[in-house]
Amino acid sequence: MLYKSPTGIAPVIQVHPLRRCNIACTHCYSLSGPDKQEEISIELLSACLEDAVNLGYRQLAVSGGEPLLYKSLPALLGLARTLGMVTTVTTNGMLVTQNLWTTIADRIDVAAISIDGTPEEHDVIRGKKGAFARTMANLEVIRTSGVPFGFIFTLTQYNVNSLEFIVRLAAEQGARSVQVHPLVLFGRAAYALSSARPDSLELLIALIEAARLGSELGVAIHVDALTVDQLVKFREYFVAESPVTTLVDVAPTLIVQADATVIPLTHEVDSRFHLGSLDNARLLSLAGDWLNSGKCQQLAEAYQRTWNELSNLCPGTVVTWFDEVASRTHDHCNIKPLELSFIMG
Amino acid sequence: MTIHHEKRGSEKLLEAWKARSLTEESVKEIAAALDKSPARVVSANVVGGANATGIQLSLSYSGDDVPQCGNDILFWLKWHRTHGGVVNPPRIIINGIPWPDLVNIDLDFGQVEKTAITTPGTVG
Q1: What pLDDT shows up at residue A93?
Q2: Which pLDDT score, from 0 to 100, does residue A3 have?
């Protein structure tokens, strides 16, 4: 079923159960690394998932940090399955072993493996020589388990030329899909890659390359961006009708950080829109208070403002919708939208 | 403020696209298209030496076959969309106005540096 949301899929709760990771990637928006200790207990997350389902969330997306380092990952995925949720896990693939994968393989609907370019490019981003080779070697475990998997490629201002390599690799390795995710300037990326956010031209080229390569190689490629033309045509999928009465209407993606903070939409949303901490209250309670506080309506207004501004741009302009909305939550009186450095004439 | 000197990904993509070498598959496609075409191949040159980057073709169409040259131009365009290279505009010489009875076309596939080409037997 195509849900009426920008993603077209059921509302997603994106959980970062920990910030510990075996590496420290330059583009990491969660500032994860080997020395990070933040972790949410399985008890808190279990209650959170139950509440999330009651709120309308139907998909659990687990990342991190490196989710394979979360010892309660099998339990978390198992509970999600019991609750009828679709489960995805995003991993760097370096820690996959037969023993570990066996504990979770029957509880994952899709695995997403992060690949950042050619072997050399990937290793530089990951900050570890041999990272690419290790991930490729471990793919065999995932392949033989039968779990469908895809690649996630972080698009920057400087690497759309590597997309062909990624897609060809996906075709060779049996990956079903490639997700092209524009770099988010949050966490480590905000200072390590501050000039690398892809502008509208690079997003447009990514869309064109995705169409060409997908057609040629038979790999499903999804770019997390859309044209203004699409935004206008499918308005009802992007802007909730007022009054907004449910959380999923303005937060089709809900993020649970490793410090138990609950955030609607993206990490870049202004902190005053955060729902609160699971350490203080259950998700249902946080959501109820948030809906009654007026923040829900303010976020809905940010959606409307964003749509009004973007819909006036040239139809061929390519934007990242959620990021645009998030940027407009930062100062209600002095909006600083993302710089659109290229607009097609 | 740090000024980043790295090229955009799209710039690198275009450079790589233009610099693509010929592959066996891309050459076979040209051969297959010529088999189907009524054109007479006047000349065919491979450029780039051991690392071939392009092919220069001179094709001739006469009589009722003249309208078919459009199909070959379309193939030439589509070939570049798949295989890359530099799209040099074709050199088209038409003999016979307003009803051409002879058309000669020079098509460059891939990466061919533009040079002055004289096709024998042409009349303006």
Answers
A1: 96
A2: 58
Q: How far apart are CA A27 and CA A191, in angstroms?
A: 9
Residues A171-196, mean pLDDT to the nearest whole number: 92
Token pair belonging to A257: 């950080």
| Model confidence, pTM | 0.82
Please, what is the Cα angle at A210 between A206 and A214, to 5 degrees? 170
Q: End-to-end distance of chain B based on CA atoms, in angstroms?
A: 60
Q: Which residue of A has its CA nearest to B6?
A: A158
Look up residue A242 and give its amino acid. Answer: S
| B-interface mutation test, from A116, A158, A215, A342, most B Cβ less than 10 A away | A158
pLDDT of residue B22: 84
Tell me the pLDDT of chain B (124 aa) as tens digits: 445 578 999 999 988 888 777 888 899 999 999 999 999 999 999 888 877 889 999 999 988 888 889 999 999 999 988 888 888 889 998 887 777 778 999 999 998 876 544 444 433 3
Chain A CB within 8 Å of residue B78 CB: no
Determine the Cα–Cα distance for residues A155 and A179; give it in Å rounded to an integer.
Answer: 10
Contact B62, B121 (CB under 8 A): no
- B63 touching A, CB under 8 A? no
Q: B28 vs chain A: nearest CA distance in angstroms?
A: 17
Place of tokens 């088209």: B92
If contacts are CB pairs under 8 Å, which of residues 201-260 in chain A contact chain B? 201-202, 205, 209, 212, 216
Kindly report the nearest CA distance between residue B105 and chain A, in angstroms: 29
Tell me the chain B residues in contact with residue A209 when contact means C-beta distances shorter than 8 Å.
Answer: 13
Span A49-57, mean pLDDT? 97
Q: Report the residue count for chain A.
A: 345
Inter-chain residue contact B13 with A161, CB threshold 8 Å: yes
Residues of A in contact with B16 (CB under 8 A): 161
Could you tell me which chain B residue has the CA closest to the CA of A164? B13
Prediction ipTM score: 0.83
* Separation of alpha carbons A11 and A3, rounded Å: 8
Per-residue pLDDT averaged across A253-275, rounded? 95
Closest CA to A238 of A55, A13, A7: A7
Q: Choose among B4, B10, B82: nearest Cβ to A202.
A: B10
**Cβ-Cβ contacts under 8 Å for A73 (sequence gap 6 or more):** A17, A62, A67, A89, A103, A104
Vertex A22: Cα angle to A17 and A23 (nearest 5): 110
How many residue contacts between A and B have a Cβ separation below 8 Å? 35
